[in-house]
Design brief:
With 316 residues, the chain is an all-beta fold. Helix content is 0%, strand content 51%. The chain is built from no helices and 30 strands. A hairpin with a 5-residue loop joins strand 4 and strand 5.
């Protein structure tokens, strides 16, 4: 299935600096329900078509979209581009990690170990040694060694909840637990955890990302806040998103250390500047995750079957 369509938004909110941002929308097949997105170094955008059991591939230069079927009962959630340049998918329907060869489109599956049970696989990251770490909302975290194909799984503290996961510039791997209401650092040699409770009981730590200083930005779903945890000082800070009742879902930190968030309640993509502590808003409906590369961020709009790209230059 291929689509060759794209359109440009005519204007942004008046609060944004003129010509500072360019927003483009790229439709994907109806019913795809794009959940997560990742951008490769060459600019190709991969997204999980959760509604159709497929991995989507968008070439922004042409607007051409192609979807690759992942297998019977597939329900892909997360996607990241690995050190090998290939997209790796956490597939809840297959209860497996899936790799797609970007050239041949060959699909390789890494099932969870027998006896693991249904994991509700969520999100993944690669550590500095090329090991693939992942979370499962049913209450697990685990890893895949791409060299050997070995998959290992651990039970998470407090059971249900492991959600977002990210690697810091220094090489630490942290994940967040939505139901467990904490973030945790994985000791990558042993799989043991250092657990840090949320800044406010019940805040709901959904996703996590690192800035260039190894500080962790966390989307606090229940409290509608973005949290900042500094492992060096072991201190939290937090800010409420604008609006009456925000629900902070996604978090991504770009190369300028600007923090990108999504607010489900307001159908908005929100940019937070840590220097000025000010927010800017863009339209975006049901955006569950954002990723990008220098100069651009990408957001999958699962509610409208489209991907939104926000490209930017110097904004300060």
């Amino acid at each position: 299935m291929k689509v060759k369509l794209f359109m440009t938004l005519a204007a942004l909110l008046v609060a944004l600096p003129a010509a500072a941002f360019e927003v483009k929308i790229y439709p994907v097949p109806s019913g795809a329900r794009p959940h997560d997105v990742a951008v490769s170094a060459d600019g190709i955008v991969w997204y999980t078509a959760q509604g159709q059991g497929a991995l989507g591939r968008l070439d922004p230069k042409t607007g051409v979209v192609k979807q690759i079927k992942l297998g019977t009962n597939s329900a892909p959630h997360g996607v990241v581009v690995g050190p090998d340049g290939a997209p790796w998918i956490t597939d809840g329907g297959l209860n497996a990690i899936v790799r797609v060869d970007p050239r041949t489109e060959q699909v390789k599956t890494y099932p969870l170990p027998k006896g693991s049970g249904y994991a509700n696989l969520n999100t993944a990251t690669f550590d500095k040694n090329g090991i693939h770490w992942f979370t499962g909302q049913a209450g697990i975290y685990g890893k895949v060694d791409p060299k050997t194909g070995e998959v290992k799984v651990w039970d998470a503290p407090k059971g249900r909840g492991p959600y977002g996961i990210a690697t810091t510039p220094s090489g630490e791997v942290w994940f967040s637990s939505l139901a467990g209401d904490y973030i945790a650092r994985i000791e990558t040699r042993t799989g043991e955890l250092e657990v840090v409770e949320s800044p406010t009981p019940g805040a709901g730590a959904r996703r996590v990302w690192s800035d260039s200083n190894n500080r962790l930005w966390v989307s606090l779903w229940n409290s509608g806040e973005v949290g900042l945890y500094d492992p060096s000082s072991k201190q939290w800070k937090k800010w409420k998103l604008p609006g009456a009742s925000p629900s902070c879902y996604s978090v991504y930190v770009d190369e300028t250390d600007a923090v990108w968030l999504t607010d489900f309640s307001a159908n908005a993509i929100v940019r937070f500047d840590p220097k000025t502590e000010k927010f800017q808003s863009f339209p975006g409906r049901n955006v569950r995750q954002m990723l990008g590369r220098p100069g651009e961020v990408w957001a999958p709009e699962s509610g409208d079957d489209r991907l939104t790209a926000i490209r930017y230059g110097k904004t300060n």
